[in-house]
Amino acid sequence: MSYIDIIKEKARQDKRTIVLPETNDRRTLIAASHIIEEGLANVVMVGNEEKIMDGAGWLEVDLTGVTIVDPSRCDKLDEYVNLLYETRKSKGMTEEKAREILLKDYLTFGVVMVKANDADGMVAGACHATADVLRPSLQILKTAPGVKLVSGFFLMAVPDCDMGENGTFLFADCGLNQDPTAEELAAIADTSAKSFKQLVGAKPIVAMLSHSTKGSAKHTLVDKVAEATRIAKAEYPGLTVDGELQADSALVPSIGKSKAPGSEVAGHANVLIFPNLDCGNISYKLVQRLAKAEAYGPMLQGIAKPVNDLSRGCSWEDIVGVVALTAVQSQLV
Asked: pTM of the prediction?
């Protein structure tokens, strides 16, 4: 059974309600029909029912069982307006502005549904930038207790791979923080380890990646990763983490043993922390395209309730997978 099939089975066992606000996107409509067909989650779609059903008819997909919420006709609109106003009034929000936003911005409407406990999570990003998904999520849901920053990760399932956790890896940060400091890298390592444990169920083994292994190169970029490793070990003593490590040192046992003898992580890593967003984003796309890996994300970690982003190049199958992962995340919040 593949990794995503295991996640789907977990989602079915405790079905959750997930909002899909991008109802003008054909991939979202197709994904919604498959989510219902596979019994992965209860689906709420935000938008005009006639337009959504017309789109479904044109695509020849069955949305029977999907709940459609039109903000302009929603019985809870006043409640949602008040919730948004109360959450953001210290930032200048008025009731009039809150109503205007909720009637026009389906992303914000979906986040408010999650805030109001009328949905367990939201998935968007097929036709919106990450910043558009993240902004209302942080403004309304806030960060989870004890979390220093929100970051983004991909779960990578690599076929015919004996590295990582049977070919399953977590890559971070691949979607949000462009040039994290050493302190931020350490925090990303901690939250990524927790996400891996939560979604994969195996022990997270965290490698702080660099173009250097244990001082083989000298540069300020290397210094940042080495310092991040030191901070992670000091602040998160339960974390199995080491660095700085080159990718081959982190993944290949023989190379890890040669380049970083005595390291508990070298050659066995399943959580890969990249030094900046360029490295993380480029790496996940190379692995996805060249190794034919399944890439799910960018998943967001550190928000009080599950909201997850999608690559604008995603397929409808990717949306189905991220919804299943979001449902499992919500089971554990």
From this structure: 0.84
